[in-house]
């Protein structure tokens, strides 16, 4: 009986320690330069539905069900999806627009687990065209935070952002 109590206390202690050292937030972003004027790039990326062409998740579930409300490219537009295990389900809402500078959205994931992240696409004029930065940030709540000890969000999601930005560049520069 005493052994069971020690094992139980050890497990509880391990969970408490992991909870204390687990990352409680994440912030991931990637950049690319697109050889197009800032207005052209911004007007394309502010339309959330255009992500169907360059976002990496479309390829992971071509049969994903989608629903849209509001006017794309305006604050309040919502893109909702329900997909396979790899893409899950959730919604993305445009929460702010700064002309030729930034598109802010909120990502609300429902499956495989609930979470909310603030996402952005920033555009900045540079010598070679337009620099596009795509990123998101949020907080990890217990017990999900413990899983983040074993998952590197920057590497995992960063790869997706790099892939998507390269597709975006290809789409926007194909006319050049």
Characteristics:
alpha+beta; seven-stranded antiparallel beta sheet; elongated
Word description of this protein:
There is one protein chain. The chain is α+β, with helices and mostly antiparallel strands and 176 residues long. 35% of the residues lie in helices and 36% in strands. It has 6 helices and 7 strands, in the order αβαααββββββαα. A 7-stranded antiparallel beta sheet has the order 1-7-6-5-4-3-2. Strand 5 and strand 6 form a beta hairpin. The chain is elongated. The N and C termini lie far apart (75 Å). The relative contact order is 0.22. The mean pLDDT is 86.
Topology of this structure?
Layout: H1 2-21, E1 25-34, H2 38-45, H3 51-54, H4 57-60, E2 65-69, E3 78-82, E4 89-98, E5 102-111, E6 115-126, E7 129-139, H5 144-147, H6 153-173
Antiparallel strand pairs: 1-7, 2-3, 3-4, 4-5, 5-6, 6-7
Helix and strand run: HEHHHEEEEEEHH
Q: Termini distance? A: 75 Å
User: Per the principal axes of the C-alpha atoms, what is the gross shape?
Assistant: elongated
- Helix share, percent: 25-40%
SSE-based structural type: alpha+beta
**Which strand order does the major sheet show?**
1-7-6-5-4-3-2
Biggest pleated-sheet summary: 7 strands, antiparallel
> Which residues sit in consecutive blocks of at least 5 with pLDDT less than 50?
none
Radius of gyration: 20 Å
User: How much is the average pLDDT?
Assistant: 86
β-strand amount = 35-45%
**Total number of beta strands:** 7
Number of distinct helices: 6
């Amino acid at each position: 009986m005493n052994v069971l109590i020690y094992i139980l206390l050890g497990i509880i202690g391990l969970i408490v320690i992991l909870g204390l050292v687990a990352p409680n937030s994440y912030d991931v972003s990637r950049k690319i330069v697109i050889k197009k004027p800032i207005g052209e790039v911004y007007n394309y990326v502010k339309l959330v539905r255009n992500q169907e062409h360059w976002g990496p998740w479309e390829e992971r579930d071509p049969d994903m069900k989608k629903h849209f409300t509001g006017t794309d490219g305006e604050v309040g537009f919502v893109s909702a999806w329900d997909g396979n295990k790899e893409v899950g389900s959730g919604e993305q809402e445009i929460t702010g627009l700064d002309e030729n500078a930034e598109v802010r959205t909120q990502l609300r994931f429902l499956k495989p687990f609930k979470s909310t992240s603030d996402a952005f696409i920033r555009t900045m004029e540079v010598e070679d065209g337009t620099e596009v930065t795509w990123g998101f940030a949020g907080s990890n709540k217990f017990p999900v935070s413990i899983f983040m000890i074993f998952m590197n969000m920057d590497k995992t999601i960063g790869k997706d952002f790099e892939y998507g930005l390269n597709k975006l560049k290809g789409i926007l520069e194909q006319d050049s």
